[in-house]
Amino acid sequence: MITRRQSPLWHALASAAPETAAGEAAKYRLVCVECEDIPKESLLALPVECRAIDLPAGVTQVGRRHQRKYFDGLGSSAWTQYVSRTHLELAVRAGSDVLSATNCSPNPLVAGEFLVTPRDTAELRAGQTLSFVRPSDNGNLVSFLKFEVQEV
């Protein structure tokens, strides 16, 4: 029987767990709750810290340039081509319970139930989801990564 700590997936994500810059306490985090390449049970069995991107006050850029090991650890090259170097910017305003998500990618995002096209901004609150999407063979958009906004 392979335990979580023996799993290659666990090691890849654990070594890639994003860190918050020194002195910056995260108020929120994005926690991966669905990934096209990983069975949901296996993903949810990983510690939250391995599935999370911390969001301190201010602006956090999310994408391959900023969390390369994290995105490489989550999946295959088949969909990582749809994660831009800077895919989005998440702004956490001090004293606010709203996050602003600005799509910096030519690829759309889905914030809650709303499509966020390139250069558009959506507001998110704790408990809402943010999905990275790609076109399917039939032209519809398919979520390949889904994150939940959580308070820390």
Features:
Tumour Suppressor Smad4; alpha+beta; 5 helices; 38% strand; six-stranded antiparallel beta sheet
Short synopsis of the structure:
With 152 residues, the protein is an alpha+beta fold. Helix content is 20%, strand content 38%.
Secondary structure topology:
Elements: H1 8-16, E1 26-35, H2 40-45, H3 48-51, E2 52-56, E3 58-62, H4 68-74, H5 77-80, E4 88-92, E5 99-103, E6 109-111, E7 114-116, E8 121-124, E9 129-135, E10 141-151
Antiparallel strand pairs: 1-2, 1-10, 3-4, 4-5, 5-8, 6-7, 6-9, 9-10
Helix pairs in contact: 1-4
Task: Write up what this structure looks like.
The chain is an alpha+beta fold. It has a single domain, classed as Tumour Suppressor Smad4. 20% of the residues lie in helices and 38% in strands. It has five helices and ten strands. It has helices at residues 8-16, 40-45, 48-51, 68-74, 77-80, and strands at 26-35, 52-56, 58-62, 88-92, 99-103, 109-111, 114-116, 121-124, 129-135, 141-151. The strands form two sheets. A six-stranded antiparallel beta sheet has the order 2-1-10-9-6-7. The protein has a four-stranded antiparallel beta sheet with strand order 3-4-5-8, with no helix packed on it. Strand 4 (88-92) and strand 5 (99-103) form a beta hairpin. Helix 1 (8-16) packs antiparallel against helix 4.
Using the 3D structure, state the CATH architecture: Sandwich
State the helical fraction: 10-25%
Spatial strand sequence of the major β-sheet: 2-1-10-9-6-7
Q: How many structural domains? A: 1
Task: List segments where confidence is low: pLDDT < 50 over at least 5 consecutive residues.
Answer: 1-6, 14-22
Beta-strand residue fraction: 35-45%
Q: Which geometry do the CA atoms define?
A: globular
Cα distance spanning the termini: 33 Å
The profile of the biggest β sheet is: 6 strands, antiparallel
Please tally the helical runs, counting DSSP H or I stretches of 4 or more residues.
5
